[in-house]
Automatic annotation (TrEMBL):
Primary localization: other
NCBIfam families assigned: PRK00790.1-5
Protein location: Bacterial flagellum basal body
Source organism (scientific name): Tabrizicola piscis
Gene that produces this protein: fliE
Keywords noted in UniProt: Bacterial flagellum, Cell projection, Cilium, Flagellum
Matching InterPro entries: FliE
Protein name per the record: Flagellar hook-basal body complex protein FliE
GO MF term set: cytoskeletal motor activity; structural molecule activity
Any GO BP: bacterial-type flagellum-dependent cell motility
Record's keyword annotation contains Cell membrane: no
Record's GO cellular component terms: bacterial-type flagellum basal body
Family designation: Belongs to the FliE family.
Amino acid sequence: MDVNTSLVSQAYANARTAAAPQPQGDGAADGFANLATNFMATLQEHEATASAAMIGGADPHALVQALASSQMAVETVATVRDRVVEAYQEILRMPV
């Protein structure tokens, strides 16, 4: 029973920190900087996992998981890029 109680309390503590209000930064510039930093960190981590799997240091399941996560990250960045370009084009179409 103690193990379940500690797992529940740990999950609750993690949920509280995730739901806590975050301090406001400079706005969009900080958001894009954080996005780029997280994207690069994710790709570097998955590249390390792929390298380890090639030399036998990681299991194939970790490799598949890293590849799927990398694909999701690249698709997310491409979608954000497309939305930004679309918004920019919409601004250019506005009458002056």
